[in-house]
Design brief:
By secondary structure, the protein is mostly beta strands. The chain has one domain: Pnp Oxidase, Chain A (Roll), CATH 2.30.110. Helices cover about 15% and strands about 45% of the residues. The chain is elongated, with a radius of gyration of 26 Å. The structure holds flavin-adenine dinucleotide. Flavin-adenine dinucleotide binds near residues 74, 96, 97 and 120.
């Protein structure tokens, strides 16, 4: 029974929602009244500015495709589980890269090195070339998943898409980790407050 013991032995009238056990009166918990949801007191710009204070690494998520591979800059990468080994990235649901990732059902997360801010900008730009053209000047090889693995990173993770969860305007893509490798870069590229740093 959900409720609480009110500490008294029953005397007099017992309310209809009370239960008597060994002379003690238990009363059902009142139905919780939800607090009214407050309207957000911030602008989209303020939200971005505060969220941007969380320093992250930077990755380029790559995936194979029928018209050639594609890639996008992502900092929502997280190591989700060790056993089983799972990793996740979040992509705007209505974006080319989310569509490509769903179609490919596999992807690689290339963790950028300190000297790779240019790659970060390239794969974040909306007018970047697509397919093989996008990688024409980017040294890479093709991994076990068919996704490009960029040279000079601090490491990469190759995943098979395990599940996807649309949340708000983004989708969480969870991948089962198939292969990992440490890279040759000395340290990571760090993104904080809209600027790039090295460690
Ligand atoms: C450091 C860093 C980290 C990033 N991390 C992430 C991340 O974790 N996840 C993520 O999804 N993106 C992230 N981005 C942004 C992403 O790299 C770029 O938006 C990239 O251009 C997306 O490519 P696309 O092919 O998926 O998008 P496209 O579908 O080609 O869209 C390209 C651009 O058009 C604009 N656009 C198109 N439609 C809309 C719309 N409906 N509403 C708003 N804007 C629209 C956006 O500016 C978008 O970037 C990051 C960028 C940087 C610099």
């Amino acid at each position: 029974m959900t409720g609480w013991f009110d500490g008294t032995a029953s005397v007099g009238t017992v309310p209809p929602d009370a239960t008597m056990i060994l002379g003690h009166r238990f009363v059902a918990a009142p139905t919780a009244q939800p607090d009214p949801v407050p309207a957000p007191g911030f602008t989209s710009r303020q939200l971005r500015d505060v969220m941007g204070q969380f320093a992250t690494g930077v990755t380029v998520v790559t995936m194979p495709g029928e018209d050639g591979p594609s890639a996008v800059t992502v900092n929502s990468f997280t190591s989700l589980s060790l056993d089983p080994a799972l990793a996740m990235v979040c992509l705007r649901t209505r974006s080319r890269s989310a569509t490509d990732l769903r179609a490919a059902a596999r992807f690689a997360v290339n963790i950028l090195g300190a000297g790779q801010a240019e790659l970060c900008r390239l794969f974040a730009s909306s007018d970047r070339p697509s397919g093989h053209q996008a990688f024409a000047r980017v040294p890479h090889r093709i991994g076990r998943t068919g996704a490009p693995l960029l040279d000079g990173t601090v490491g990469h993770v190759e995943c098979l898409l395990e599940s996807q969860v649309p949340v708000g305007d983004h989708t969480i893509f969870v991948g089962a980790v198939l292969a990992i490798e440490a890279g040759s870069a000395d340290g990571p590229l760090v993104f904080h407050g809209g600027k790039y740093f090295t460690t």
